[in-house]
């Protein structure tokens, strides 16, 4: 091949000696350019999405008998050139069909020149009925005297398959014509989808005619096929399951015959044309394939769920007895438009939204045209939900077609005109890409080529009539357009529901492009979107967006997105109220709204937090700077949310030390603690910290606040007649504080040289009382109650003792439960040397060299049983009480502590205040099996996390899990369960874990045998 020929062919998108040889063999190429009369053929070939694929198909077609006629027509018929070469370069499957049936080539000729009418349902049905030998003039199959095929079995299937592909070839070539020749008419994607639905109807009619010929059903049997899904909405894809429901009359003995007929129709259509899916019928796959109309009505009145009524939005008769099918639609339609009044409507809608992308592999989510974010399902779901909400009182919305319904929503004022038009344009673009992808091999797919598949993306761009724009090649334009439309769908999906609501409540006149909802329609929409109190929610929106201030303007722009995120949270009502309060509290914070506007991740995360937690908004108003930590950088969470506890402790103590008075120091410490509690809560709710890390972080803050406060009070003392040490007890000593934990402590002092014990204790007590008062006094910042009730003699005993006093008490009056309490004792503040001396004093008591006696073990078990019986609140459920319930915190902690009392004298590794560390060491020492230790650890983590979640959700401490409702749903979400899911799944998991932990407790702590 000479250079000039190679250059000319490359300009046409063809390379290689084979292309030149093929073109010369066809007579289309001369020495250095197109042969006379073939210039237009070559340009049509150049416009084909895949020129090499098209040329190979032409080469195969040239080996068939009709080729001379095809060749002559190509030189003169502009329509044939555009259709044929575009089709052969777009679809290997249709190219194979044409090569296998070359006499079908006139199907691609110019329809106008042939004088044939455009294809319609009646014409296509007649063509397919004739293909199987049925009389198109006879009554429809499925009715009395209905048409029956003369072909049956494999012969009928083969004939129907060929006829169906013929019709598909003609339709696809018309669809692709403008790809091959920009001067040919462009077929809108709506029309293509409608004709594909007509073709499916025709195929089902032909399948029914074949089935009737094979099975010879009783003459009185009437069978209607109801189309659902895309076929029902007349918006079918090139390759798609056809969703149907079968309705037959009469019932009784003829039901079996109707079921056999319906089954055979599904099999014939499935082998010849497309899969027929009847799983949307009542009870799904487990339900009867065929029911009478009365049976359908009874089911939908008593048992149907919201999604089943949503599916019925698109129901229409598509084959069989049309009169009977119309009766089905007429009977069920009123129920569809009452679905939004059902008690479970909101729950079901939220669950349906949550399931949209759950089954997509993560690596494919960014390429999914249908189910991915900003995909086709987002548009369809939004339109269907608005139809269900507003269609109850507006018959104009009763359409099964997405684009028709969207236009009606815009026309009736439920969707802004511009929003509706933009959403429709994006939907058409995405459907066009979907059609082209499916045409390539006639396979069901919604997946775009991968980013590194340049050839695949180039082919798709050309098949979709995308052209380079001077700055970008076709691949660049395709990717940009797809991403732009996906973003627009996402943005409009959020605006669609809520922007009209803002216009409804705003004191300003609505933009002419905005929808204007009546108060009743606005309330109905809010209720359907998850708000239990629509009127209250609209009041919050009115307060946030009213007026002409800059803040109100920003809120009007922000709220459509924020409300969409809030609606997916466990408690949208509380979340919206919290957002209003936070916004009002931060009205004078200049960067607050700007941050939400400019950082989408911050806004989305804030809505998740506010719609889940009552604690977060309480803390946020006085610690707004934490919001900045919710931002991400390149998809990586800000490390500020998960700071090292040691670093936090050091920073807190340094900050507090700068204050000049104890009061200022404590105010600073408590403010810092508020900030850190909020930071930890945000990280916890966003799933960034495991439960033991949450406890460690909270514990570190509490220790630092205690230490800093004590230091501040001591600095203010002119004389120090003693040194003082704070001993952490309980969960504080164990490093396991929760959000609602008090600071359990004991105080020990040591007199200075020359100072008597009485003077030292009196001074130390005054210091301690001042510390407790400062940390517990009323303040906008959370208090840290200091609880010293675990000291010797409890509340009746002195607040502070000397080392000698502690030694004497434990030697003379100490009981086993006090030795058990000392297992958590750990110096946390004050004089370090004194703290170490206290530890040395109590070590022999809590870690007895010979363990504890059998009598002491019995006493511990008796005390535990009494605590469980007496302290469990009245009406509490022992299976879900996180502290005193079965397998809860007390069960696990007492079990570990008993092992420590028994064995820590011999096993130094057991000498730790931490429950989990002690449990691990007990397993290492062989005191408990690894399996039992794992069950106890999971029980402890689960109960601790649940206890924390209760505090996060309610904003106040609690140990009892909610039994049901939004609080239970919020606790489940706070623990990482999906929003919109069944919170009963969390309860089942909790009970399973704690039940297993309790079984270990009964064996190890109580010594009960499994028998």
From TrEMBL:
<dbReference type="GO" id="GO:0005829">
    <property type="term" value="C:cytosol"/>
</dbReference>
<comment type="similarity">
    <text>Belongs to the GlnE family.</text>
</comment>
<dbReference type="InterPro" id="IPR005190">
    <property type="entry name" value="GlnE_rpt_dom"/>
</dbReference>
<keyword id="KW-0460">Magnesium</keyword>
<protein>
    <recommendedName>
        <fullName>Bifunctional glutamine synthetase adenylyltransferase/adenylyl-removing enzyme</fullName>
        <ecNumber>2.7.7.89</ecNumber>
        <ecNumber>2.7.7.42</ecNumber>
    </recommendedName>
</protein>
<dbReference type="Pfam" id="PF03710">
    <property type="entry name" value="GlnE"/>
</dbReference>
<dbReference type="InterPro" id="IPR013546">
    <property type="entry name" value="PII_UdlTrfase/GS_AdlTrfase"/>
</dbReference>
<comment type="function">
    <text>Involved in the regulation of glutamine synthetase GlnA, a key enzyme in the process to assimilate ammonia. When cellular nitrogen levels are high, the C-terminal adenylyl transferase (AT) inactivates GlnA by covalent transfer of an adenylyl group from ATP to specific tyrosine residue of GlnA, thus reducing its activity. Conversely, when nitrogen levels are low, the N-terminal adenylyl removase (AR) activates GlnA by removing the adenylyl group by phosphorolysis, increasing its activity.</text>
</comment>
<dbReference type="InterPro" id="IPR023057">
    <property type="entry name" value="GlnE"/>
</dbReference>
<keyword id="KW-0548">Nucleotidyltransferase</keyword>
<dbReference type="InterPro" id="IPR043519">
    <property type="entry name" value="NT_sf"/>
</dbReference>
<dbReference type="Pfam" id="PF08335">
    <property type="entry name" value="GlnD_UR_UTase"/>
</dbReference>
<dbReference type="GO" id="GO:0000820">
    <property type="term" value="P:regulation of glutamine family amino acid metabolic process"/>
</dbReference>
<keyword id="KW-0511">Multifunctional enzyme</keyword>
<keyword id="KW-0067">ATP-binding</keyword>
<feature type="region of interest" description="Adenylyl transferase">
    <location>
        <begin position="509"/>
        <end position="1011"/>
    </location>
</feature>
<feature type="domain" description="PII-uridylyltransferase/Glutamine-synthetase adenylyltransferase">
    <location>
        <begin position="863"/>
        <end position="1005"/>
    </location>
</feature>
<feature type="region of interest" description="Adenylyl removase">
    <location>
        <begin position="1"/>
        <end position="501"/>
    </location>
</feature>
<dbReference type="GO" id="GO:0005524">
    <property type="term" value="F:ATP binding"/>
</dbReference>
<feature type="domain" description="Glutamate-ammonia ligase adenylyltransferase repeated">
    <location>
        <begin position="604"/>
        <end position="839"/>
    </location>
</feature>
<dbReference type="GO" id="GO:0008882">
    <property type="term" value="F:[glutamate-ammonia-ligase] adenylyltransferase activity"/>
</dbReference>
<keyword id="KW-0547">Nucleotide-binding</keyword>
<dbReference type="GO" id="GO:0000287">
    <property type="term" value="F:magnesium ion binding"/>
</dbReference>
<keyword id="KW-0808">Transferase</keyword>
<feature type="domain" description="Glutamate-ammonia ligase adenylyltransferase repeated">
    <location>
        <begin position="154"/>
        <end position="327"/>
    </location>
</feature>
<feature type="domain" description="PII-uridylyltransferase/Glutamine-synthetase adenylyltransferase">
    <location>
        <begin position="351"/>
        <end position="497"/>
    </location>
</feature>
<dbReference type="GO" id="GO:0047388">
    <property type="term" value="F:[glutamine synthetase]-adenylyl-L-tyrosine phosphorylase activity"/>
</dbReference>
């Amino acid at each position: 091949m000479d250079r000039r020929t190679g250059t000319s062919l490359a300009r046409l998108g063809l390379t290689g000696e084979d292309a030149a040889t093929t073109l010369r063999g066809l007579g289309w190429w001369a020495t250095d350019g197109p042969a006379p009369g073939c210039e237009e053929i070559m340009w049509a070939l150049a416009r084909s999405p895949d020129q090499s694929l098209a040329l190979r198909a032409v080469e195969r077609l040239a080996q068939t008998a009709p080729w001379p006629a095809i060749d002559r027509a190509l030189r003169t018929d502009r329509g044939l050139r555009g259709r044929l070469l575009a089709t052969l370069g777009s679809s290997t499957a249709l190219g194979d069909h044409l090569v296998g049936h070359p006499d079908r080539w006139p199907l691609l000729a110019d329809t106008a020149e042939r004088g044939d009418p455009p294809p319609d349902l009646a014409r296509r049905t007649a063509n397919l009925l004739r293909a199987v030998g049925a009389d198109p003039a006879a009554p429809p199959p499925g009715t009395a005297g209905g048409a029956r095929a003369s072909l049956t079995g494999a012969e009928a299937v083969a004939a129907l398959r060929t006829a169906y592909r013929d019709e598909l070839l003609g339709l696809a070539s018309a669809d692709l014509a403008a790809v091959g020749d920009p001067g040919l008419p462009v077929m809108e994607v709506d029309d293509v989808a409608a004709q594909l639905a007509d073709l499916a109807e025709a195929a089902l009619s032909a399948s029914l005619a074949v089935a009737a010929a094979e099975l010879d059903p009783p003459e009185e049997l009437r069978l209607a096929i109801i189309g659902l899904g895309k076929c029902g909405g007349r918006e079918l894809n090139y390759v798609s399951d056809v969703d149907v429901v079968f309705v037959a009359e009469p019932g009784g003995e003829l039901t079996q015959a109707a079921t056999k007929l319906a089954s055979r129709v599904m099999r014939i259509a499935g082998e010849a044309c497309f899969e027929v899916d009847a799983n949307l019928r009542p009870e799904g796959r487990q339900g009867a394939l065929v029911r009478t109309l009365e049976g359908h009505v009874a089911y939908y009145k008593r048992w149907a769920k919201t999604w089943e009524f949503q599916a019925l939005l698109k129901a229409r008769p598509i084959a069989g007895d049309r009169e009977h099918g119309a009766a089905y639609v007429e009977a069920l339609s009123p129920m569809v438009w009452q679905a939004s009044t059902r008690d479970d409507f909101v729950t079901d809608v939220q669950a349906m939204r949550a399931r949209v992308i759950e089954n997509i592999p993560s690596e494919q989510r960014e390429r999914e045209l249908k189910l991915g974010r900003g995909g086709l399902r987002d548009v369809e779901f939004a339109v269907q939900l608005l139809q269900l909400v507003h269609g109850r009182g507006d018959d104009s919305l009763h359409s099964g077609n997405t684009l028709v319904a969207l236009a009606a929503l815009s026309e009736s004022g439920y969707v802004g005109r511009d929003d509706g038009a933009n959403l429709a344009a994006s939907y058409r673009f995405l459907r066009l890409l979907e059609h082209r992808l499916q045409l390539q091999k006639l396979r069901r797919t919604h997946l775009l080529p991968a980013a590194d598949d340049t050839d695949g993306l180039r082919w798709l761009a050309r098949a979709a009539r995308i052209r380079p724009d001077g700055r970008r090649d076709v691949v660049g334009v395709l990717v940009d357009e797809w991403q732009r439309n996906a973003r627009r769908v996402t943005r409009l999906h959020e605006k669609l529901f809520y922007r009209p609501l803002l216009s409804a409540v705003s004191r300003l006149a609505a933009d002419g492009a905005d929808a204007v909802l009546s108060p009743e329609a606005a309330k109905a929409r809010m209720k359907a979107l998850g708000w239990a109190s629509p009127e209250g929610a609209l009041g919050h929106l009115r307060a946030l967006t009213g007026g002409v201030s800059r803040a109100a303007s920003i809120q009007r722009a922000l709220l459509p997105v924020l409300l969409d995120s809030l609606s997916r949270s466990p408690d949208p009502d509380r979340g919206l109220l919290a957002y209003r309060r936070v916004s009002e509290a931060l009205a004078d914070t200049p960067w607050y709204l700007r941050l939400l506007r400019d950082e989408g991740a911050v806004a989305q995360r804030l809505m998740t937090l506010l719609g889940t937690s009552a604690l977060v908004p309480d803390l946020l108003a006085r610690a707004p700077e934490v919001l900045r930590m919710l931002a991400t950088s390149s998809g990586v969470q800000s490390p500020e949310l998960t700071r090292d506890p040691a670093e936090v402790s050091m920073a807190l103590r340094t900050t507090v030390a700068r204050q000049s008075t104890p009061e200022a120091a404590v105010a600073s410490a408590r403010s810092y603690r508020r900030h850190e509690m909020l930071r930890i809560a945000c990280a916890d709710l966003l799933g960034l910290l495991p439960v033991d890390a949450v406890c460690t972080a909270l514990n570190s803050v509490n220790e630092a606040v205690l230490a800093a406060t004590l230091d501040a009070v001591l600095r203010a003392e002119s004389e120090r007649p003693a040194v003082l040490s704070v001993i952490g007890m309980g969960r504080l000593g164990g490093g396991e504080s929760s959000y609602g934990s008090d600071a359990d402590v004991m105080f020990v002092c040591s007199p200075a040289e020359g100072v008597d014990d009485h003077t030292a204790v009196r001074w130390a007590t005054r210091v301690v009382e001042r510390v407790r008062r400062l940390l517990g006094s009323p303040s906008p910042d959370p208090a840290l109650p200091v609880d010293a009730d675990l000291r010797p003699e409890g509340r009746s005993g002195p607040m502070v003792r000397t080392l000698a006093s502690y030694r004497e008490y434990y030697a003379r009056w100490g009981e086993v439960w006090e030795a058990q309490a000392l297992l958590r004792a750990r110096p946390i503040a004050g004089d370090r040397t004194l703290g170490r001396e206290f530890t040395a004093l109590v070590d022999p008591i809590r870690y007895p060299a010979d363990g504890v006696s059998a009598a002491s073990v019995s006493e511990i078990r008796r005390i535990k049983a009494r605590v469980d019986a007496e302290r469990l609140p009245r009406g509490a459920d022992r299976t879900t009480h996180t502290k005193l319930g079965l397998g809860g915190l007390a069960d696990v902690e007492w079990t570990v502590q008993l092992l420590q009392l028994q064995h820590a004298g011999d096993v130094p590794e057991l000498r730790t205040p931490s429950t989990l560390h002690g449990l691990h060491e007990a397993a290492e020492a062989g005191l408990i099996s690894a399996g039992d230790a794992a069950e106890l650890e999971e029980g402890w983590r689960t109960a601790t996390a649940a206890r924390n979640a209760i505090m996060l959700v309610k904003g106040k401490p609690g140990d009892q899990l909610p039994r049901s409702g939004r609080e239970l749903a919020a606790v489940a979400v706070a623990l990482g369960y999906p929003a919109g899911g069944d919170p009963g799944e969390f309860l089942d998991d909790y009970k399973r874990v704690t039940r297993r932990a309790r079984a270990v407790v009964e064996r190890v702590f109580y010594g009960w045998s499994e028998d």
